[in-house]
Specification:
Length: 223
């Protein structure tokens, strides 16, 4: 199987969303109830993602892996470039509130709020390079932050995710930056094969907030 790595376009968002729903099925069960969200909610989420994509944040990079034979999007990645130390303007609470938008009926709000609070606080502790008098991070290190990487389940282990990750790493190398990411237990083997080393693993006890099970996420601050 051959594939091309190409920039993602706004028109690709619905197909990427559908592929991500399958790739992140376990994660979605953590954040949403029931397992499958309604058509109306899916349309609202897709519309929100298209609006975000069209804002053209100059720091954002979006790429897709496309099957050369069928034209199907088999994998996609998104990262953000921080060429200078990032001065924190928004609080963790503000960032988490944005993650709750749009509020679809299936959203497990308590779970989502607690999960992203844990993740963002962990990131600030790992990548923070300057703190205030209370020990809270006010500045994060220069980096390329991998925000999302997924492969449609039907095309996994074909090298698409690795190719997208390598594109991210290449940009970071060109700019003289490290790559920061947060890995799930399933995704960690790929990152380790590409030279990443975990620095901290956090366990999210979803049952405490009305969810199900325990989920591990590892902070990886560079390669």
């Amino acid at each position: 199987m051959t594939f091309d790595i190409l920039p993602t376009e706004s028109a690709d968002i619905p197909e990427c969303f559908a592929a991500a729903q399958k790739a992140f099925a376990e994660f979605n069960r953590l954040l949403f109830k029931p397992d499958t969200i309604s058509t109306e909610s899916a349309e609202l989420l897709i519309k929100s993602r298209i609006q975000g994509f069209n804002n053209k944040n100059p720091q954002s990079r979006n790429f897709k892996a496309v099957d050369c034979e069928t034209g199907t999007i088999i994998a996609a990645a998104r990262w953000r470039v921080y060429p200078e130390d990032e001065l924190l303007i928004k609080s963790v609470e503000d960032i988490v509130e944005a993650k709750l938008q749009p509020r679809v009926p299936e959203l497990r709000e308590n779970v989502v709020r607690a999960f992203y609070t844990m993740l963002n606080q962990g990131k600030r502790e790992v990548t923070g390079i300057e703190q205030d008098n209370d020990g809270r991070a006010v500045k994060l290190m220069r980096r390329v932050e991998l925000e999302s990487l997924f492969t449609h389940p039907s095309y996994q282990r074909k090298g698409a995710a690795k190719a997208l990750l390598q594109r991210c790493i290449q940009e970071a190398d060109t700019l003289g930056l490290v790559v920061y990411l947060e890995a799930t237990k399933d995704g960690q083997p790929l990152y380790e094969k590409c030279g990443f080393e975990a620095i901290r693993t956090q366990t999210f006890e979803a049952e405490r907030f009305g969810g199900e099970g325990a989920h591990q996420y590892t902070h990886v601050p560079g390669v």
